[in-house]
Amino acid sequence: MTENKLALKPYIQAIETHCSKLSREELMTTILNFAKDVPVNGRQTFLDKLYSISPVEIEISPDEAEAIKEDIFGEIEGLHEKIQERIESIEDGSYWDDIDYEESHNSYGYYRDEYDDEEEPDYVTEEDCKEVIYYFEQAEDLFLDGELVLARDIYARLFNLLEDISELEYNMSQMTSSFDIRESRARYCRCVYDTAKKEERINEFMEAIELYAPISEETLNIEKEKFPMLQDIMDAGTEELKEKDDFLKQWLTALEKHTSRRAATLSLEVSAFLNGTKGVAALAKKWGAAQPIGFLYWTQLLVKEEQWQAASQAALESLSVLPNTSLREQAADYLILCGEKLENSSLILTGKREKLISVVSETNFLNFVDEINKQKIREKELANLKDVIKKADNPNFRSDNNIYAKFLLVSGDITTAYDSVKKDRQVGWSSGNAGLVFGAVLYIICGRSDKATRINTLLKHYADGSGTYLRHRNKKNNGISMSDEILKGLKQCQINEADKADMWEWATTIGQDRIDHIVSNKHRNAYERAASVLGALSECFILLDQKPKAQALAKEYYSTKYSRFSAFRSEVKAVFQDSNLLRSLEL
């Protein structure tokens, strides 16, 4: 079942254990206390429920069961048709023909579906969802009353409805947390198991459990999946599965013929039932990288049992086999956890290194840097990973802008970082590397001065990837930020004077081109950025003892070139007022 929800079997067992210790009088007192807590408007319902669960069993006759089934089937079919008609009317536009003018038009007289997208009607209404949940509750009541054949048939019809109209399941889960689709599926599978003939049980059960249902390809987190495992189905009833031992062996054999991800998780589960951790390990090694969840399931099982040493070995073996994906990243997470539990810094370091190699992302990189800082092996570890980061080829790497440039700067290799951007243009700084390297170059040129507040602000902006310049908030990950680590790297790097001169010439050229591009094209939302570049260049001139050049540059852009651009001039004023160095210049 989903997290924080207890399956029926352990729930009933816990209540039975508790109640068995109570006397008749204590049981009566318990029931009376429950009754007192019921709100006034719920008391009749409480009484009806109490009367309905009396020890006298009332069986539904076959004719009554057939009548109930026909009634509910008819209602479900009617609901299905109603929803389908609504969907078709929305898609063909006829939906608006059946409602009032005021409802179908906005305040300007235009059709809502053409001009007011936010008012587009939902395919499935809240009332539809409530009705479906009601039928699931009816099936649940029948299941709990032991009417398994009837419950099975109603569940089957309801799941067909959800399959045909996919919006229903999502809307139901959003509307109420009390509806647990996984538990309903588990109860349906239990109905199928308990009502099927022995010779047909495997095939019918296999169809009910949906071997080819989709499950996450990013991580292995079985508890959060919407489809039940065999343990969920076993826990759905209060009794043990009939002929369980024989079934488990047959079930494992049947699953071997299927290659879906879900079939693999079910195979691992039944292997654990039959042969324990060794059975799971054997299956994982048999599959190898072809079915990577085998290694993860094995590691997870050991982690749940708190066998930390064994789990660390399983995680290490997983890392040696699995390709660089989020699943391998998860295996690295388990290795880190084992290292923490065992107080083994070597395992923690290996885990964080392999996590970064698995998925090259900024978060993983910062976690790794944090660890190598703690263990005082920063320079060596960064040097060993340079080629790995450069060659990283996965979606996470491509989505993390500038990660290789940031890696180079953290390593103190500004020369390689500069070589990678020196042919870049003045546009696209937000998504490329030029802005970041521009800030780093100015920081080096100005002598790494703490007085250069605008240069530092600009560098932090591009390093941490935050929103606006002046409203910048330093993004931290576990107490460290990318900008802090880049500053550490830049403070250690050495550059010869020729390279420094080349970088400074590039920075002044691309910086001024950047200002001109933004302001001349009237990109008002970017005026703050242009003003920040102007301020950074001016600070650098001042710290190079070239204040007249700083003054000339500021006047050129503020008073000459863009004297009529009042919005840009306002941003320049704000930037220059924010820096002690820049306040010494006249605008």
Count of individual beta strands:
0
User: Helical stretch count?
Assistant: 30
Low-confidence blocks of residues: 113-118, 393-399, 466-474
User: How far apart are the termini?
Assistant: 68 Å
The assigned structural class equals mainly alpha
Overall helicity: 55-70%
> Can you summarize the main beta sheet?
none
Our estimate of the beta-strand percent is under 5%
Shape: elongated
Radius of gyration: 33 Å
Structural overview:
The chain is mostly helical and 587 residues long. Among the domains are: 8-52, no CATH class; 303-399; 403-584, no CATH class. The chain has 30 helices and no strands. Helix 4 (62-92) runs antiparallel to helix 7 (126-144), helix 10 (181-195) packs across helix 12 and helix 15 (293-304) runs parallel beside helix 17. The longest helix has 31 residues, at 62-92. The termini are far apart. The relative contact order is 0.04.
Topology:
Blueprint: H1 8-19, H2 24-37, H3 43-52, H4 62-92, H5 101-104, H6 112-115, H7 126-144, H8 148-164, H9 166-175, H10 181-195, H11 201-209, H12 230-236, H13 244-255, H14 261-287, H15 293-304, H16 308-321, H17 326-342, H18 345-358, H19 362-374, H20 378-391, H21 395-399, H22 403-410, H23 414-419, H24 434-445, H25 453-464, H26 482-492, H27 497-520, H28 527-543, H29 547-561, H30 566-577
Helix pairs in contact: 4-7, 4-8, 7-8, 7-9, 8-9, 8-10, 10-11, 10-12, 13-14, 14-15, 15-16, 15-17, 16-17, 17-18, 18-19, 20-22, 22-26, 24-25, 24-27, 25-26, 25-28, 27-28, 28-29, 28-30
